[in-house]
Write the structure tokens for this entry.
Amino acid sequence: MAQLKVRIQSLHWKNIRSFDKLDAPGLDGEIHNSFPTNGGIYLQMPNNTGKTTTLNLLRSVFTGKIPEETNEWRRIVVAENTESMLNDSSEFSARLLINDESFRIKLLLDHEGGDHRFFTAGPRGDQQGWHPPPSFRRAFEGRRELVELFIFDAETAREMKTKTNRNLLSSAIREFGGYSQIHDMIGEMNSTGGFEGGRLETIKSELEDEIGSLNDEGEDSGRQQSWNNCLNAVRRVRSELFDGIQARPGVTQMQESLEKSNSRMVEIDTRLSEIETDYGRTLDNVQPLQDTIDNLKTKYRTETEKLLESLLDPINTFDSSWHEIRDFHCRHQDANLPADVGKGWLLKLAEEDICICGTPFDDEMRLHIIEHGDQHLDRQKMVSVSEMQSEFKNLEHSNRDSIITASDLVTRTGNHLGEKTTEYETLFLTESSDEIAEERDNLNREKFDLTIKIRDLKHFLEVRTTNNMEWLRGEGLDTGINSTGQPTTSVGTIQTVENLNILERIESNLLGLLAGSREEGDIWKGLLLARSVLGMAVTKLNDELRRDISNEATSIWRSMPAAGSERNLRLQIEDDGMSFYRGAGDPMKAVSGAQSVSACYSIALAISRLGHISIPSVSDTPFAGFDQAMVTKWYETISGSWDQYMLLINTAEKKLLGNLCHEDYCASLHQTDMSSDGGRKFIFDTDFDLFKSLLGSNDTLGGDD
Amino acid sequence: MSNTKQRLVELIRQSAAENGCSESQLEQILALVKATFEEGVPDLIDLRQRLLTLGGTR
């Protein structure tokens, strides 16, 4: 049974763009009619009537977030052939059936005073503000990116590549997986992989206050004061590492810069892909050449990996008798001394007054060395070493044929790839216009610079935030952790720490020392243990479910027309967004608009299935880039997958649907006249003949307003 | 959903072993999780008491 079941019952506009007052479905006097709670709802809205506006308003109703920019939603009127916007308040409301209880959530936009508000009418009466039931609130409050997966248009579908990342999925997974309360207790994972926030954070703050208040009473020892100084240093350094200091950017700035760079990279890739599609692929013979280049790239990578394997195999780089060398060293790991030199040394040692360990020798000890020394000597050792040295005096080169072969293959494939790439570039430059060639050059240059910038930013962020201590040690960046693995308790060292995770360990250790010295130690130990155990468990669960959702979404995506037409496509939700793959190769630079739209459906469906939730899908102009055959396949998939789905379509998309939707709920929002305020007057009509015949002069298979 | 919660309990057992928890500590953590699922996150006084016992258990 669904834990959260939501249905859209009706939509209501007042003084919003083209609509003076409109109810969908229409009212019977004062009685509301409702959309069907199952199946498709096709709302035909010609371009420039407010499809995108409706979508944005509906997102606000779901997230409880008042949009920053509301001016564009004012009522449009025409006076003397000039359009203007009224300052009258606008209202939008949606009646939602949430777990079988009806709620009306209204957004009132006060354009003059800027006092925008929500109102909620539900089974327990009317309230100011946004007050849906807790299960709905926990799922959607403030989560625009999540809502955009269910309520989307072509534009948000394109952007979801970067928006649908690990964080978005994590919050959706925990909510719909039913274990968000654990996060309410332990908090959220921070950038260093630890957890902060939640009720445990309140207890941590209380403990810190208690420690602080003891300190104020002057009961601290010198050591406790020193630990307190260290704690203050930790907080100062953490603030610097997060927020930056002077010319040294902090994690926040680096993340912002990385996000901007990634977005720009997506734009560049999209534009380069458009150029390839619009110009490159129109050239004669370019497709076979492009295929050859793609194959050579794969071969080049495979051959390079083989060369690396050959180089790393000692049998290829050392003498052919490498096994003998290995066995020799294994045999001599017994810690015995060679008898020839060791015997004399032991006898001489037994004559001394004091042992090398500092203990004075007595006769019994001397006797023991003389009688048992042989047990620690090896008569064959010098002979073996000598034999080994003679054996390898004239070292023969190993047979390096496999390395040479692998290296030749890499060189040849690289040269071949270079030739074909040059051939392609020459063909492209000869056949395309100067402007396009220059734009492409500039984009490639910018991409090269951006690639380096992104790599550097990722490296710096890794240094600041990783919890991989092995790597930090290898890079010499583990300042703050001493050679025995213990966190420092020195202010001077803390000031040079570069990694936030190390800083956290230092802080945790200091708090533990302070708490332990003041009887709060057990609470502190319990807190750390609970957070560590539960944090590790929910992190693993999140990762497992993220993989499950990626697989499930891939399977749904492949069943859809846009992605199903290409073989071996798969999508994967990764740390920095969603990636699309063809087979086992590198991530694809971009996918088509139709593929993005179907990916939105797929992810949203996969999330719904995880939580056994039932939420409507709402999409605006969803058939951009579709043809007739794709729409038929789309209909089969969507009508069988969603309990309730709503489409805001223009008249061109309606034509593409043909008779597919004739058993679904179809209605038109169309202009009948001009309203008394000088704006357009729209009515809502469920007449199917009108639905079939309505034409919009500006309607195409693309977006609009 | 119930599968997800069952899997969470399995992972908590694994994680407790990796953190060197005793059987008694594991039982206390599982009791905390059960209480959280059934009644919401314990209030501060209750939670402090649970952590005190957990931290004091060997």
About this structure: Chain A touches chain B at residues 3, 177-179, 181-182, 184-185, 198-200, 202-203, 206, 521-527, 529-530, 532-534, 536-538, 540-541, 544-545, 610-612 (CB under 8 Å). The mean pLDDT of chain A is 83. The two ends of chain A are 39 Å apart (CA to CA).
